[in-house]
Amino acid sequence: MTLVHHKSGSVEPPLIEEKLRLYSMRYCPYAQRIHLVLNAKKVPYDVVYINLVQKPEWFLEKFPAGTVPAMNVKGANLYESLILADFLDEYFPEPRLHSSDPLQKAKDRLLVESFGKIGPHLYKLLMGPDFTEDAFQGVLTMLAKMENELKNRGSNFFSGEKPGMPDYMIWPSFERVDVIAVRYGEKGKLPVQTLPLLTKWISAMKDDYSVKPFYLEPERHALHLEKRRAGAADAFDIL
Q1: Same domain for 92 and 55?
Q2: Which of 69, 96, 123 finishes a domain?
Q3: Alpha-carbon torsion (142, 147, 150, 155), positive or negative
């Protein structure tokens, strides 16, 4: 199955009335955050996928930074996933995804920022030429910290008894962790027996109504990344 990512020389599709427009890339974990927020709030939205290697001229005119996710709301060009997530949580207040308690909201923000440190380790394992033990240990260390965080919070989700903003902001990286084993086999498998709470959380997140429509199996992510590493022209347009 193919999926069109607009690239240099393309024309932007016409806007759809009464729908927000989200500029995205199907395999981008940062863009996925905004899909999850919009899905959680059941907001109708239109998606235009962007080829991040051959970016359309019209996209760069609107968003010179050239990054996704991006949105245009009432003439204002907005981008950066955490900023967009905060904006959408206030613009569409139901259901509220951030905690209403300012202190808890701050703690959740710190959690998301801290978990972001997994990014360089994941990138090295998924886009680098070979398996590196230091990167894998970096991933395992961060997962152990998140297991302990769930234990300390005493809830099924990082937001309590249902997914909230911290869950949706960290989920895209978790969706890609199992790609390590797809690429490297046995040495890339996670020690799930030491992560019982995270394992339960992952299963529950996969079943969440916001996550399920956008979820991709590890093998699909692995194929995209394989094509990206090879510089394949169709790396973005597979599904």
Answers
A1: yes
A2: 96
A3: positive
> How many CA atoms within 13 Å lie on the side-chain side of 172?
20
User: Any idea what the CATH number is for the domain that residue 204 is in?
Assistant: 1.20.1050.10
Q: Which residue has 């235009």 as its token pair?
A: 48
* Strand pairing class (20-24; 70-73): antiparallel
Question: What pTM was computed for the model?
Answer: 0.96
CB atoms closer than 10 angstroms to residue 93: 10
Q: Which one is catalytic: 20, 22, 25, 28?
A: 28
111 and 147 part of one domain = yes
Is residue 234 flagged as an active site residue?
no
Q: Which domain holds residue 176?
A: 102-208
Query: How far is 226 from 2, CA to CA, in rounded Å?
Result: 16
pLDDT in tens, 18-54: 899 999 999 999 999 999 999 999 999 999 999 999 9
Q: How many domains does the chain have?
A: 2
The segments of the chain whose pLDDT lies below 70 read: 1-2
